[in-house]
Amino acid sequence: MKAIRSRFLPILITSLFLSTVTQAGTLSGTVINRTTGKPEPDVDLDLLSPTAGMAELATAKSDAQGHFSVTKESIGAAPVLIRATFHNVSYNTFAPPGRPEVEVEVFDISKDLKTISVPSHVIIFEPQEGKLVGAEEYSIQNASQPPAAFYRTEGNFDFAIPDLATLGQVSTTTSMGMAITQASIDKGKGRFAIAYPFRPGQTNVRLSYELPYRNNSATLKISTVYSGAKLLVVVPPGVTVTGNGLVAAGQEQGMMVFTHDPLPANGIFTVSLSGVGAPLPASGDQGQGAAQEGNSRQGPEVIAAPSRLDDFKWYLFAGLAALFAMGAILLSRKQVVAVTAGGDEDVAPVPAKSAKAGTAAKPKKAAPSSAPSRASTPSPSADVSREVEQHVDVSMDSLKDQIFRLELRRQAGTISEEDYAREKVRFDKLLRDLVQG
User: Fold this and answer.
1) How high is the pLDDT of residue 349?
2) Are strands 191-194 and 185-188 parallel, antiparallel or unpaired?
3) Between the CA of residue 390 and those of 52, 72, 190, 387, what are the distances in Å?
């Protein structure tokens, strides 16, 4: 019976996708200004392919009623990323395959710092080969009314890294699960900033850095830029952590968690670490090419949703522990693809000192085949099957990442039990929606 299922399941998935291909070709929608609640005319739109290195599929412009429509053979069989440029700022909207009608959101801009708040700050330390890798994540909330995006071209989110640390990658992640690498602005003395439009809702800012770890120990001064953020310090088992105000909070997904009361703006607390920790499991990176949102000059890794995920549900949750343990390492090793600003795009000036982009991962060589070599043209069903596999792999990482952050927010006390339960239901609904195509 299992043999029959394994034989016919790929055929069923391929048939479902091919039926979509035959009906595909048109993507239409409306650009909505969420600040005014009205359709927005004359917005430039770029339709990009997340599964083909962010290749441009088509361009469009919203009409007087904010509507747009694009018909093309390459649209419909795969996910599409819609990049809308409004007030010289880019906003990304994800359109999954099989959904021909979408709403593209844009916002008016606010420069008022009170537009955002920072309820939580998570710091992960991981010893690695004689050095200490640090990864930090800030949760940023924008509850503006009427809704507006917080943005300043000179930099609108500041952060600090410890002395002697070398900054690696900085990225932003929205509720869409889309990680976008940001260029950093060096303000001196370990202070940096990014310029990014924080849209209403939650956005996470992640950054990584490396520190000397002589004799497997280090004492660091952690600076807080914003007041009121609940602090979590996370380390693998085997690493000893001490610091004034740090309280052990047990384990979460196999990692040691410590809490600290919120500090005032520009506050400092000292933390000491020693030990090498437990070995980490291997993990791979998933990259989908370059895109752009806000003023970013470097591309994100766009998280494309799969068309079928139900069979992988429990494997997804089981993989949380490995993801948690690898958080710091992934930030320092993720593929970064530089994007050259086009002539018609308004991009913030490049900082004099910015984070160095990582080198792109080399493509894996195909395993040699025992069959005789012969030229052949890949069939549509083979292309679709490969695409399904890519979507599943990438989206599993995305969902694991979102669940990981939800558990951290619960541990930090920055989310109520009611909101926590609501988010859990949302994840289940997402899985059901994906199964239904």
Assistant:
1) 34
2) antiparallel
3) 11, 23, 39, 5
Contact 198, 207 (CB under 8 A): no
| pLDDT tier, 404 (very low <50, low <70, confident <90, very high otherwise) | low
Contact assessment for residue 91 and residue 176, using Cβ atoms and an 8 Å cutoff: no
Within 10 angstroms of residue 426's Cβ, the number of other Cβ atoms is: 13
Q: Is residue 183 within 8 Å of 351, Cβ to Cβ?
A: yes
DSSP code for 312: G
Query: What is the tens place of the pLDDT at every residue in 302-323?
Result: 333 333 333 333 333 333 433 4
User: What is the overall mean pLDDT for the chain?
Assistant: 74
CA 38 to chain CA centroid, Å, is: 29
Please give the biggest Cα pair distance in the chain: 69
The pLDDT-based confidence of 327 (bands split at 50, 70, 90) is very low
Cβ count near 209 (within 10 Å) = 23
For the chain, the C-alpha Rg in angstroms (whole number) is 22
Q: Which amino acid is at 333?
A: R
CB of 355 within 8 A of CB of 170?
yes
Q: Give the side-chain half-sphere CA count within 13 A for 353.
A: 11
Nearest to 175 by CA among 428, 423, 436, 431: 423
Task: Provide the total of helices (H) and of strands (E) in the chain, helices listed first.
Answer: 6, 25
Of the listed ranges 172-181, 245-254, 359-368, the one predicted with least confidence = 359-368
- In whole angstroms, what is the distance from residue 361 CA to residue 48 CA? 21
CB contact at 8 A, 188 and 351 = no
Nearest of 47, 125, 32 to residue 82 by alpha carbon? 47
Three-class SS state of 115? helix
Measured in degrees and rounded to the nearest 5, phi and psi for residue 248 equal: -65, 135
Q: Strands of 87-229 (E only): list them.
A: 89-95, 101-106, 109-110, 116-128, 131-142, 149-150, 157-160, 166-174, 179-181, 185-188, 191-194, 201-212, 217-224
Domains of the chain, CATH where assigned: 1-106 (2.60.40.10), 114-306+313-357 (2.60.40)
Q: Which residue has the tokens 């395993």?
A: 367
Q: At what angle do helices 2-23 and 380-412 cross, to 10 degrees?
A: 100
Angle formed at CA 366 by CA 361 and CA 371, multiple of 5 degrees: 180
Using CA atoms, how far apart are residues 18 and 77, in angstroms rounded to an integer?
Answer: 8
pLDDT at 129: 86
Q: How many C-beta atoms surround the C-beta of residue 42 within 10 A?
A: 11
